[in-house]
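User: Before I run my own analysis I want an independent prediction to cross-check against. Here's the chain; please return only the structure tokens and, at the end, one sentence I can use as a sanity check.
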Amino acid sequence: MTHRRSLAHTGLWAVAYTAATVAGRATVMDDANLSLVWPAAGIAVLWFSRQRRSPLFWLDVTALAVITVVVNTATRATPALAVVYVAANLAQAMTFVHLIRRWRPGLWGAGGSGQLRSPPDLWALLAAAFAATAVGAAVGPTTVWLMTGEYSWASTSVWLSRNTASILLVGAAGFVVGPLLSRGDAGWRAAARQIGTARRRTVAEYVALVACSTGAYLAGFAYSHGLPLAFLLIGVTVWAGARLCTSFVALHNLTAGVIVVLFTLHGTGPFAEIGNLATRAVVAQLFVTLTAVIGLSLALGRDERAALLAELAADKAELAAQREQASQRAELLRAIIDSTADGLAVLDPTGRVTLRNPAAIRLLGGQVTPPGEPIRAAHYGFCHLDGTPLTDAEMPHARALAGEDLKDEDFLIRNPGVPEGRVLSVRATTLLDGAGERSAVVLFHDVTAERRHRDELTNFAGVVAHDLLNPVTTIEGFSDFAGEALAALPDGPEVAEARDGLARVHRAAVRMRLLIDGLLAYTTARDATVATVPVNLGQLVTEVTVARLDAAIAAGRPVPRFIVGDLPPVRADPMLIRQLLDNLIGNAVKYIAPDVTPELTVTAEPADDLVRIRIADNGIGIPAGQHEAIFGNFHRAHGTAKYAGTGLGLAICKRIVERHGGTIEAADNPAGGSVFTFTLPPVPGSPQVARARAEEQSWTEPRR
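Assistant: Structure tokens:
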């Protein structure tokens, strides 16, 4: 707020406060300077509430003090008494400002911009008014007592009642009308729109209330003829509070208070008949306060209820919109699920179907389990690829609910709907619903045509490989025969050249055989059916290591040393896992430095829901930067003729591990050599390996 604007506001408030002070002093009832009303108390709290953050707030305090002294001394109050009134009014106003800003900081004048909106706002206003008045009474009458030596309980009671009523009536009107006025032209236009859009019935009700209020006050105060007719005012107050807007109720209460005071001052009405002036003032102010509280509490309670109903209606509309959006999303999701070519089924823990799309019914040959019954393997004709029927416990959903994660496992379906049989690739997993109950989600994909095409390619590759091996075998045989013939000839330049060329042909034929064997092995690892069963990993490692020991002894090479820890059973294809182990162990024995005895350590440990197998060797290691590249097709980390190979061995290993849902990686062995680590799924229910306990196995006749 600028200084100029603040100064203008100070001037306006000073004028209003001067008028209120003069009006209050005009109601002095006796020589004791007891005023019947003191509207200046209400103006003061509004003044300081609005100007509290003004840069010229000290000017507001000075203006209030000067006006209080001037008006009081001009109306026959002593200068000392005027100074007491200054201190009391300042203490009263500052106390109210502090309390209302603390209790209701969102109100206009208390740091916010809101109106009185609920009964709690009214109770906070009333409590702050009474507390502030009590502080003012403690300063004013108490100081007078200290000055005169005589304490007047009558003055204290009048101070409490009139100032509380003034702050309540004037403050309520200010806190209701003030936010509208502070908006300037926009606020006035909004008020005009509300009046302009009011229904004729509402306008008529306002007019009727004004007429009834006028009649009630005239009957109760002007023409009562001694009859206690003031109770009629409660009726119009209840009418206004229950039916009309809060702003009108606040102004109605303020007008009613002015009317009561005027009639009482002129000696008419029920309160004018009270002989004691202090009692007359207290009773009149209590009446005004009571009617104001009744009217405002009814109006604010109605406003709060209307706001809550509006909020409830908004929440209900939002909820309806969200429900409509959810319904639309559900319909869209249902349409997507129903239109997909792959089958989808959701089953509860008991095996009952809770959701399935048309594709699932079609892929399963149109077979449908009766509602409420769990599905049975025999009902749908679920079989292994070799034609062996599945048990109910081997069904995909049962295995998923048991904790197994199925990924692209193939099953054969044969029933009256598909008598020729259909191969489905199945995925199954679990999900939790809102109640925490697990359900199985099963996806079906028809791979019959893909498998037929793949089998045709595999058969073609087998035929081609067989046809290629025949000439390779012929080349190897005749090169051996020619080599033997050349060996019998005397040495000479031509013979040496022929022997060298023949050796090159023989090596090329050997490489061709290795390449064909590698391609066949890679095709098998990539395309062969993965028939997973419980596999005794320890026994399989023993068989592979025994074969390597026998080969080393037969060839006269250094006998490898194997250290094998406790290996748990895994669920895998035994033929593919044998091929995996044979490649990794064979590489460890093969890629070894001269005059070094191969040494391998095979251990296992749990890895979340998998088993991690670790094969560490003391070989020549992996060149830097090639730890991932070595798993690519035809990649050879050591391309020298000393370490022959096709570059397909580790690619085959990676494919085998991935087809079992695991991963494989290579790293350097801190002790020298390499470490290959891969994961495989464990057998459900089997104990995991707590810690790998390596036990050296050095065999002449290896342990079986």
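Sanity check: DSSP finds 19 helices and 14 strands in the chain.
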